[in-house]
Structures are given as structure tokens and as C-alpha cells.
UniProtKB/TrEMBL annotation:
<keyword id="KW-0812">Transmembrane</keyword>
<dbReference type="Pfam" id="PF00672">
    <property type="entry name" value="HAMP"/>
</dbReference>
<dbReference type="InterPro" id="IPR003661">
    <property type="entry name" value="HisK_dim/P_dom"/>
</dbReference>
<feature type="domain" description="Histidine kinase">
    <location>
        <begin position="269"/>
        <end position="481"/>
    </location>
</feature>
<dbReference type="InterPro" id="IPR036097">
    <property type="entry name" value="HisK_dim/P_sf"/>
</dbReference>
<dbReference type="InterPro" id="IPR036890">
    <property type="entry name" value="HATPase_C_sf"/>
</dbReference>
<keyword id="KW-0472">Membrane</keyword>
<keyword id="KW-0808">Transferase</keyword>
<keyword id="KW-0418">Kinase</keyword>
<dbReference type="Pfam" id="PF02518">
    <property type="entry name" value="HATPase_c"/>
</dbReference>
<feature type="transmembrane region" description="Helical">
    <location>
        <begin position="12"/>
        <end position="35"/>
    </location>
</feature>
<keyword id="KW-0597">Phosphoprotein</keyword>
<protein>
    <recommendedName>
        <fullName>histidine kinase</fullName>
        <ecNumber>2.7.13.3</ecNumber>
    </recommendedName>
</protein>
<dbReference type="InterPro" id="IPR050428">
    <property type="entry name" value="TCS_sensor_his_kinase"/>
</dbReference>
<dbReference type="InterPro" id="IPR005467">
    <property type="entry name" value="His_kinase_dom"/>
</dbReference>
<dbReference type="InterPro" id="IPR004358">
    <property type="entry name" value="Sig_transdc_His_kin-like_C"/>
</dbReference>
<keyword id="KW-0902">Two-component regulatory system</keyword>
Amino acid sequence: MTWVPTGLRARLVITFLLVAITASAMVAGLGYQIVRRGLLERAERGAVADVRETLSRITLPIGASEVVWPSDATVTDEDLDGVVRALEAPERTVIVTYGGHRRANTGALFTMTDVPDQLRWQAARRLVHQIVLFRDQAWLIVATQIQRANRDGVLRPTGLTAYVFVPLSEEEAVLTRLRTALAQAGGITLVLALTLALLSARRVLLPVRRLGAAARALGAGELYVRLPVRGRDELAELTATFNETAAALEDTVSELRTLESTSRRFVADVSHELRTPLTAMTAVTDMLSEDAEDLPDDAGEAVRIVVREIDRLRVLVEHLIEISRFDAGAATLRRETVDVGDTLADCLEVRGWADRVKLTVPVGLTFSLDARRFDVMVANLVGNALNHGAPPVVVSARVAVGGEAHGWLEVTVRDHGSGIPEQALPHVFDRFYKAGTDRARSAGSGLGLAIAKANAELHGGSITAERCEPGTLFLLRIPKP
């Protein structure tokens, strides 16, 4: 898997290093090649000049008066040895050939098999030289056929060819030291580039980090955060823009908070003010409902409608008051150890649901919770199942064993109706949300599930909803204190 740097700091440092490495490699490589070429050319010129000068001093044939070595002259090994000795020098290998005769100096490291064929062919016409690599060491081969002037002054080949192997060890040592020096210089350059990259990255990224920290603080609600503007570059302009945006956001949020607070206070005040007339209206409608059967059909139906709508309005007002407590942060938790089975049974019995709901709870199951708020949660979940689901409605409770929720109280409420639509599941706990047009005029306030969720979160727990086949399953989870 290829690692790709994602941070701006890493990208800046890597860019600096790549530029430094590339520049150092180009300068070092170019300098090394220039020095190497000049050093080898000087060595070649020196060796070739030495061979030429040596050959010019050799008398051919040895002991003869003619200056031309006849092709039919008698050449002995001693004659060839004389040529070898003349060309011989420390660490050199000298090979001299004449027809079938071949002589080399004592301790020769090479033979004619080590001479490239092309070099032999060219040596028959002129003096040639070539650098070759033998045994991991560079050698310069100088090869030429010895020529001498005849009585008429014309150069004629003698048939004698000399091959001189000149070591380039000294030049290689110089190049080795040069490579070491260049490598050290490259390392120093790399360290300097890295230091410069880190300093530059710090200088560039420090304002960016400050902006990031300020943005996170702004997102966390610290709307008063501001940054000092230093300089006149692009980062300074960005910092100034951030400060202006933060100031505008602070003003907007403050205004929205004021409006929200006013709205919550208005809802709470209206809800409390409605309780008194609702109480009176409820008492009157209770009296009217008792006599509804004795009234004419139209009047009796009108009374029943009024009773039903007043009861719906009473539930809505109670829910609004409860929601306003949560919004104001006034909701408190009063935990006590209760028998879960008895609490669930009382919740169903008080509301007349005992014969419509199947309850499954282990005997003697106790748990620490707020009994009143627990009653509200269960009542809202069961009421939702009875109003919008289909029987049988099953309520069960247990203490979870194992896993992250070990020791938590889990209460499930399941109906066997058509189930909540898949697209509505993420919104069932939203305020005033009703899934489907058939629920638009239902008896519910649209706040029951939202209140149940708020109570569960006040306990530190949660409520989830999921589709089953058939029906819907609500899961209430309360952690142990």
C-alpha cells in the first residue's frame, strides 16, 4: 500500500527535500562527471605521450644499421624483451608481438586475450587507446604498431606491435575521495534543507494551526474567540476575514438565542396559562359527557367531539410544559430502586391497557431509575404501539448480560402492525413528526416519542426504533447508575 502524505506540513517538508535532493544530485553529478572526464583525459594524455616518447627512443632493429626493420629480418625474443624493458614501468603490463612472437614483462597481469578485438584491428593502423575495466579496476590500454622511417624518410610499419596496460588506480582513488566528499556535501545539504523546511513549515503553518484551533473553538460554542492579525500577507488577510466572520456569527447566534429563549418562554407561559381554563373546561365536559346519552343525536355527538378535542388539547398542553422544562434545563432526575415488573404493571393498569398488552418481566427485577419519568417513557411507547400498531402489543424487560451494555435495563415494546415506513424511522423522535397522512389527525400530540427520548437521555440511556416482520420494535435502554 502506497503511503501518501496528507498533512500540509509533511507535503511542504517533502517538497523542500525533493528540491534539495534534486538540485544536489544534479550539481554533484555534473561536477563529478566534469572532474572525472578531465582527470581521465589527463591520465590518457600522459600515458600516451610517455609511450610515444619511449617508442621514439627505441633503435630498430636492435644492433642493425638500417632504420627500417625489414619484414624478413630475424627477430629474437631478446630483441622483443628489449622493447618490453624500454616500455616497462611500475604496475604496468607490457605485451609486444611480432608475427608469432609474443613477449610480456615479468609479473604481467594480462595476456593478449584481454585485449579487445577492435583495439587490435585499430592498432595496426595508428596509435589507439581505450579505458577498460578489469577485475573491478580501471586500466588504460595504449596500443600501436611501431613505425620507422626508411632511407627515403617514409614511415614504414615494422610489424612489431606494443600493448601497454596502464593502471588508473591513482585516478580512481581521487575519484573515490571526490565521491565521498560529494556524498558528505549532499548529506550536509540535506540536513540544511530539512532544517530550513521545518522552520519554513513552522512559520507558514503556525497561523494555520491557530486558525484551526480558533475554528474548533468557534464550533464548540466559544463565539468570542478572535485572533491577532500580524503582517499584511495572505494569512493576515485570512485571519482578519476569520475575525469578521466570527463577529458576524456571534451577533447572529446571540440574536437567535434571544429569539429561541423568547419563544421557549412564550410556549411555557402559554402552556401554563392554558392549564387553568383547561381544568375548568375538563370539569364541565366531564359533566356533559355523563348526560351526552340523554341528549339528541346531534347534540350528543357535538358533546363527544368537544370532550375528545379538549382531552387532546389537555395532553398537548401537558406535553408542551414537559418539553419546555427540558428546553430550559429544569428537568431533574430522582433515582430510586423500584420493582420494574410492578412499575410496568401499574403503568398499564392506570391507563386501562392491562388487558390489551402482554407483559413479560422476570420476577423480582429491580433497578435504580426515576419512576415517574420511567412511567412517562413506557406510557408514550405503549400508547404509540396501541394507537398506530396492531395487536398483540408485547412489553418485556430484562437486565443485559455481557457486552458494552452489561448491567443496563432493557425494555422492549413491540406491536404487530404494518410498521413505521423505512424513510420515517430517522424522524420518529422528532417533535410534531407524524409518519403518514393517516396520522395527521390522530389523537397524539406529536411530542410523546420526543419526550420519551428526552427522558431516556436524562437517564443517560437511549431509545431506538426498528422495523420488524411484522410491526415495529422500540428498545429503551437505561444504564446502571
